[in-house]
């Protein structure tokens, strides 16, 4: 019976007649037998296999170079070697797929830049393998968190006609012939002749549709891909990323901030409890201090300040910033990182942002200057969550949409939620890759998603 290496290594007792299958990390030949380190991706550790040269199939050993796939039958026995409890004593050895010496991942350290050049193979390394196991566990933990609170998981469309964030960073979806598109009487492209009979795009956020579903189901969350044609060449921006977007009916900004903080802590604790081996790897090789930081975050309340207080803190420090600190402008990454890494040394929720810096849907505060927005900032990454209480008052919302130059007719469906039984509601978006950077200590978003899409690279 085939079992995973993870199961074998976790065994309480010796096992007979088991089969494991995986890829050769290294092979070392001794007199009369060979040691083969096999990894099957189920965990960070390899299983050491001892193949005696009398064993069936052992003549294939010489071709079992690093990267080859193999299957081994045998018994799990206590290992005399240090640092491992079990090893597999082979009874039969089988080479499944050869890899020759041109296999790029020979046993030596590789730079992340090199690994990025072979995204199709890097899941076979300790670093990417560990990251992807954490990614998988965190996805599950997101569902656990919301499902245990009675949120409904909804699926919002990927193709949409609206620009939720109003930043114009949309990828167009079209089937028109780029060389010869149909034209209208003003010699402009006739989008009514396009597939959806109007201009359509890949979504930047599922929020607007999420709001309509929350105003029916109560509490919902989405977990899906989002796309931004944002020409940002940074270590924290991807053109395709995954976002978790809860939306809660009968909820205000305070409830929203609470939910966001609870979610981040839940995910951090889940990683500490379920991905200990992977976190130890990142703590040793990528970011010393990672585990200590995660434990610290899991245990303490986040700092919570208004945007205006944040501006005051940033104006009073002697630290030099590249971008000026001006009330009314969005905080830059360097400002966010100063607040969370230097000033507070813990995650910070900043709320009540100037309305001019934020999208149309955020609830206007009574001061006439700010909106009920909030961002969660964490050390090492900066913003991982952006959210707000939504404007539930029809007249205010219409005025804000007009001020943002939106075509009210195409948002009639959205406005209906305010026309019929409007309720205070709030939600946020957690960038899944940003979360993974925070949890793993990886400094570049390209290393926390299997196939990163960034400007100039697909
Ligand atoms: O702050 P953002 O733009 O907020 C929204 O999209 C809201 N509609 C969410 C909501 O209220 N339902 O994006 C939310 C989060 C950011 O905090 C960040 O973590 C992540 O999404 N994000 C990105 N992650 C990677 N690459 C990018 N280009 C990102 N843009 C935003
Ligand atoms: Mg944001």
Word description of this protein:
It is a single chain. The chain is an alpha+beta fold. Helices cover about 30% and strands about 25% of the residues. It has helices at about 5-10, 110-115, 125-150, 205-215, 255-275, 275-285, 290-300, 305-315, 335-345, 395-405, 410-420, 430-440; strands spanning about 15-30, 35-40, 45-50, 70-80, 85-95, 150-155, 160, 170-175, 200, 220-225, 240-250, 305, 350-355, 370-380, 380-390, 425-430. It has an 8-stranded mixed sheet with strand order 6-10-11-16-15-14-13-12. Strands 1-2-3-5-4 form a 5-stranded mixed beta barrel. A 3-stranded antiparallel sheet has the order 7-9-8, with no helix packed on it. A hairpin with a 7-residue loop joins strand 4 and strand 5 (about 85-95). Helix 3 crosses helix 5 (about 255-275), helix 3 crosses helix 6 and helix 5 (about 255-275) crosses helix 7. The longest helix has 23 residues, at about 125-150. The radius of gyration is 27 Å and the shape is elongated. The two termini are about 40 Å apart. The mean pLDDT is about 95. The site of magnesium ion has 3 residues, from strand 15.
